[in-house]
Design a protein that fits this description.
This protein is α/β, with parallel strands linked by helices and about 190 residues long. It has a single domain, classed as P-loop containing nucleotide triphosphate hydrolases (Rossmann fold), CATH 3.40.50. The protein is about 35% helix and about 15% strand. Helix 5 links the parallel strand 5 and strand 6. The model has no long low-confidence stretch (mean pLDDT about 90). Bound molecules: guanosine-5'-diphosphate. The site of guanosine-5'-diphosphate (GDP) has 18 residues, from helix 1.
Length: about 190
């Protein structure tokens, strides 16, 4: 059936966000790199499935080749189920995402976050970047402009509110994300849901 998928590096607050979206408990801060399989949940207020894909990127105690395997599995899942994925949500940590992207950008390197964002777009799946932990970000507009810039979206970020959604999952402040997702469901003709 129709699904919305969530991807993100470990520790960006994906479990916290899942808890807000579904009303269910998720183990946060647990041992990373263990949950390899996608988990499916009903989005409490909507009629589709929310799929939590494993966290990727650096995790303490997880070997580099295992980390790569996790990322490869995520890409495979998205490609395999592209037809039924209505929206792809890339969750990032607003405090560190720009630094992480810059650190991993180079002639032969595309940061995972950027790669996944374009994977969704290439597959015709609308992507929303949930910029989490905004409570820790002081220069809000500048930071969000930088996020847009790194994704190839021309700032100011306010022009991209269907794509860039600043949230603070920990405080349940996730309205920009649910609004952005709803916009895409509406565009896909799913506003009957
Ligand atoms: P996951 O690994 O992506 O599932 O991340 P978790 O949901 O386990 O969260 C990782 C850490 O970030 C935990 O300590 C959370 O309490 C914290 N966290 C999650 N959301 C927010 C947020 O909006 N603001 C702040 N400051 N911390 C958050």
């Amino acid at each position: 059936g129709a699904e919305v998928v969530l991807v993100g590096r470990s520790n960006v607050g994906k479990s916290t966000l899942m808890r807000e979206l579904t009303g269910k408990q998720f183990s946060t801060g647990g041992k990373p790199g263990v949950t390899r399989s996608p988990n499916h949940y009903d989005w409490s207020s909507e009629d589709f499935v929310l799929t939590d894909l494993p966290g990727f990127g650096f995790m303490e105690g997880v070997e580099a080749d295992h980390r790569e395997a996790i990322k490869t599995d995520i890409v495979r899942y998205i490609e395999e189920y592209a037809d039924q994925i209505l929206v792809g949500v890339v969750v990032v940590d607003g405090k560190s995402v720009v630094d992480i992207i810059d650190r991993h950008s180079g002639p032969d390197e595309v940061p995972h976050v950027v790669e996944l964002f374009y994977l969704f777009e290439d597959l015709g799946i609308p992507a929303v970047v949930a910029v989490n932990k905004m409570d820790k970000v002081d220069d809000r507009d500048d930071r969000l402009d930088d996020v847009c810039d790194r994704l190839g979206l021309l700032p100011p970020w306010k022009q991209w509110q269907d794509t860039v959604a600043p949230i603070t999952a920990k405080r349940g402040s996730i309205e920009p994300l649910t609004e952005a997702v709803r916009t895409h469901l509406h565009d896909a003709g799913r506003d009957d849901l």
